[in-house]
Amino acid sequence: MSAHAGEQLSEWIDGHLNPDAAAQVAAHVDVCDRCRQEVDDLRRVRTLLRRVEAPSLRPAFWARLEAHVAKERERLARRQIWRRALLPAAVAAGALGFAFLPAGKVPLNLDSYLHEHAQYRALHPLTDSAVATLVGTDASLRVLRDSLGRHEAEP
Amino acid sequence: MDAAAGAIKTAVPLLSRAEGVEAEETPASFETLLRRHGAALYRSAYRLAGHESDAEDLLQDTVIEGLRAFRSFRPGSHFDRWMRAIMSHTFIDRVRRKRRSPTTSLDAAERLPAAPDISPEEVLLRSEEQNAVREALVALPPEFRLAVVLVDIEGLAYEEAAALMHCPLGTVRSRLHRGRQLLRTRLNGVLRE
Q: Which of A29, A131, B69, B98 is the most buried (most CB within 10 A)?
């Protein structure tokens, strides 16, 4: 190992390297003062970290925390109740709205509809597909009949 | 907590298989489990946050997130580790939020006491060496700090730390090493004593 061991030093002191890699790092550390110093320091850093202590929980904080939890639980329960109550209500309202939709429409005035339709048909006979077909068919038949009649009458 | 939710799903199955920690076999309420593990969770929060008041805020945020997500907790898995996964993400979120808004909010300003909020017990714990280590830890970038705290202080395996941090094993490896190196530089005085 010509270069320094770098990141592998941490893995090595933690025992996370496979045997081959560990043997390589060990051999390097034996001959490299810089890496040996780093290993010593990293081990000491690890020891210092393990000594980091934490104070005990302050009872006043714990009481505050429990009260906070109780409040949040109430809030969640309220939200749950609203959800449970609102969801079926929303579904029911949707269904009702759907059921009443046709009834909500403006009632059809048949007279005015027929009047308007007749007027439109008179003005634009060919735009109404049903009328256009009828006219077209009728016209073709008439042409055919006239032509046949003429042929029949000729002799 | 959206970011945390996905990570917890990933972290929990792996952590549930961890040995040596008593799993919660019978369904217990969130409050019962919290009482059982509160002290240990607070210690983790303190090591991450570095100060009592920050640790309390971190634990409170973690606990509320835990309560909201408790439906996804499976009885039979490890509550303390499940909560630690939430704490890891809450911690990173809090640090990022602080970074984005470095000015103290009015709410925070109202809550902060004029003098440092340190209990007599914490004063005793603040020996010169402990103080130096704690300050060096707090000065680390949060991602490095999390790796160092989880592996070196909490004693988690790399795999467990990766699951909690929701990152690849190689990332834990490099963050841990870089964190330790920064500590080595900052603690040079203590190391040479």
A: A29
CB within 8 Å: A14 and B151? yes
* Residue B69: predicted pLDDT: 93
Question: pLDDT band for position B113 (50/70/90)?
Answer: very low
Q: Which residues pair with B75 in a beta bridge?
A: B77
For residue A76, give how far its alpha carbon lies from the nearest alpha carbon of chain B (Å).
8
Instruction: Give the DSSP per-residue string, B74-118.
Output: PBTB-HHHHHHHHHHHHHHHHHHHHHH--SPPHHHHHHS-SS---
Write the CA distances from A151 to A122, A139, A146, integer angstroms. Answer: 35, 18, 9
Q: Tell me if chain A has a CB within 8 Å of the CB of B193.
A: no
Q: What chain A residue is nearest to B45 in terms of C-alpha separation?
A: A54
Neighbours of B56 (CB within 10 A): 22
Residues facing residue B77 across a β-bridge: B75
- Mean pLDDT, rounded, for A29-48: 92
Rounded distance, CA A135 to CA A124, Å? 12
Q: Mutate which of A4, A14, A57 to disrupt the B interface (most B C-beta within 10 Å)? A: A57
Across the interface, of B34, B60, B173, the residue whose CB is closest to A11 is: B173
Quick check: B191 and A44 CB within 8 A? yes
Range name among A138-152, B28-42, B52-66, B154-168 with the lowest pLDDT average: A138-152
Q: How many helices (H) and strands (E) does chain A have?
A: 6, 0
d(CA B90, CA B104): 19
The residues pairing with A18 across neighbouring beta strands, listed in sequence order, are none
